[in-house]
Structures are given as C-alpha cells and as structure tokens.
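Researcher: We plan to redesign the surface later, but first we want a full-length starting point. Tokens attached.
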C-alpha cells in the first residue's frame, strides 16, 4: 500500500493525515480474524459532498474507510483505490480507522466558519460496522454533535447502534436527529451471499423496533432492491410487511446501482453465483451505473403501494435545533443549514 498519496508532503491535494501517523494492527480474535486495521490521525473529518452527487445533504463524517460488512454491491469500494488498496477483498478486510475522529469533529464544529449544517453519517461506509465495537468512535462523535445541537443523521446496517441509545435520545432533545436502518430484503439466502458480514435482516429490524420503542423515530431504507434476485412481488411484500411490523416510520426503496469499483466486484459475484443473469444485467445497466428510470419507478410505485397497505406513514419531522448559532464574523449572512433526513 502507498500511503504517500494522502500524507504530508505529497504533491496532491491537502494531506489527510501525517506520514508518520499510520499504525497497522492485526487482531487474532474470531470477530476480527482476517481483518487488518490501519489506525490514522486524520487532519479533517467533516467532508463536503461533491456537487454532482445525488445525495440530499452537503456534509458527511466518515470515521472509517473500508467495511467488514463485505456487501458485494457497496458503491464505496472505489474509494479504497485512492489508498492503492484492493476494492474487492481489500475493501472488506483492510479497514482504515480515524482514531481522532471525535476530538477532531468537536474542534471543527467549534470553528467560527461552521454554520451548523446537517451532517450525515453511514452514507459511505457503515459507522457501526464491527470495527466500531473495538474503537468506540461513535459515542464521542454523537456527544460532539449533541453538545453543539448540530442536526445529524445516521444510516446503518449495524445493530451496534443500540449501544448508543442513551446518547441518541439525549441528542434528540436538542436537535434534529434522523436514524435509518438499511434492509433491502428479508430473504436469508440472498442475505448470506451478498451481505455476509452484516447482522441478519431480522436482527436489523429488531434494532428498528428497539429504537422506536425507545422513542427514537427510525425509518428503513429498503436498499438495495436487487433486480431479478430480490424484486419479485412476493419478496417486496414480505419485506415491507416486516418493516411495518418493526414499527418503522417510513420505508424508502432504492434500486441497486453499480458504480465503477462496485460494478466489477458485483459482476464477478454474479457470474459465480447466478451466471444466467449476467446478460440480463449487462442489458439493464448498459446505460451506466443506474437501472433504467422505468424500472426504478416501477419498484418505487410497488413499495409505496405496499407501504400504504401496511399503514407505514411518512416520517414526522423532529424538532429543530434549540440553540441559536453564533453570529458569523463581519456581519455576513450565515449559510443555510441543510436539515434533511436520510429519507
């Protein structure tokens, strides 16, 4: 691996961490066997989303790079190539940990230039993947956001989020907090092959129930809906029914998209497990990373109709933040805060 691309003294963009700030660890326990952790001291933690992105938010915090969930379709795989790491097995097993993320976030939120915009987490790699059980970065991150009454949202497949229920409840008392759990399907056979490192769909829906029972509204991002493998009317109905029974406040479908990096890895998996589907996928995704608009609309319509049938209402907006942001310097108008939920 060549870390110099992101280290001090590199010829590229501003360094993300110091050249001498990388510690590599392997931990020989059943939970982490086969996983290597690269501990780094990051130089920044609040990241602006590129303008061309389809994401409905502008700022993100990602305490990890790489993800042991090992989802074969994960669009974030390409980001590992920026570190000269493999986007296949390397993405699943070479995890970069920004060990100073909580203290760095607290400092950046306290900057006079920060206007309190919505911060999204879990939208690149999962902030509640297995590594979080060891490094415990999220409690400090949530505390920093809570103390500044800064609106935020979390998207996760990890049931470890339940560990932080008290902190999340405290945050909802001072700012807008959006929690979403990703459950694209309830088919256990499909889950075992495409999301082998994640908690089961049933366990994730159990987390939804625990969150809602604790008074924290939780939606479900039904993602991804996988063409020809998880999109039959029966599969969609079973998933939406289970989401409703878990007490989710909303359900939003998202059809599989295959960006470079993820596309190659998913196609190799498809050829090994469902070779008869390869030609159909080549036709469906011939136009690029996204499925055709007609297909996306069909899935959205079906899920919305099922949501109405099972009485899943739209997520209610949380309370807005309860503190007033400090006056910006020189009397300039503050940037508008983006207070959007993940759904």
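Model: Full-length starting sequence:
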């Amino acid at each position: 691996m060549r870390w110099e691309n992101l280290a001090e003294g590199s010829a590229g963009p501003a360094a993300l961490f110091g050249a001498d700030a990388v510690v590599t660890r392997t931990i020989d326990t059943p939970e982490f066997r086969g996983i290597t952790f690269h501990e780094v001291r990051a130089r920044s933690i609040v990241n602006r989303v590129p303008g061309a992105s389809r994401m409905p938010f502008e700022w993100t915090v990602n305490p990890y790079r790489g993800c042991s969930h090992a989802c074969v379709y994960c669009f974030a795989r390409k980001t590992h190539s920026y570190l000269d790491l493999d986007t296949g097995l390397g993405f699943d097993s070479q995890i970069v940990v920004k060990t100073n993320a909580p203290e760095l976030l607290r400092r950046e939120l306290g900057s006079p230039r920060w206007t309190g915009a919505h911060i999204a987490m879990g939208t690149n790699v999962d902030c509640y993947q297995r590594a979080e059980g060891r490094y415990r970065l999220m409690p400090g991150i949530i505390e920093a956001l809570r103390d500044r009454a800064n609106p935020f949202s979390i998207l996760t497949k990890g049931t470890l989020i339940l560990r932080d229920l008290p902190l999340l409840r405290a945050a909802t008392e001072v700012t807008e907090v959006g929690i979403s759990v990703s459950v694209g399907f309830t088919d256990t056979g499909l889950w075992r092959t495409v999301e082998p490192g994640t908690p089961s769909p049933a366990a994730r829906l159990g987390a939804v129930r625990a969150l809602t029972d604790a008074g924290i509204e939780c939606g479900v991002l039904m993602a991804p809906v996988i063409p020809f493998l998880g999109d039959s009317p029966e599969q969609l109905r079973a998933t939406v029914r289970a989401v409703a029974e878990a007490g989710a406040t909303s359900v939003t479908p998202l059809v599989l998209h295959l960006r470079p990096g993820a596309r190659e890895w998913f196609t190799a998996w498809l050829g090994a497990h469902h070779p008869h589907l390869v030609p159909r996928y080549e036709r469906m995704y011939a136009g690029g990373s996204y499925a055709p608009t007609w297909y996306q609309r069909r899935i959205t319509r079906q899920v919305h109709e099922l949501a109405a049938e099972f009485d899943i209402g739209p997520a209610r907006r949380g309370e807005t933040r309860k503190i007033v942001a400090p006056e910006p310097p020189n009397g300039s108008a503050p940037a508008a805060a983006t207070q959007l939920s993940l759904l």
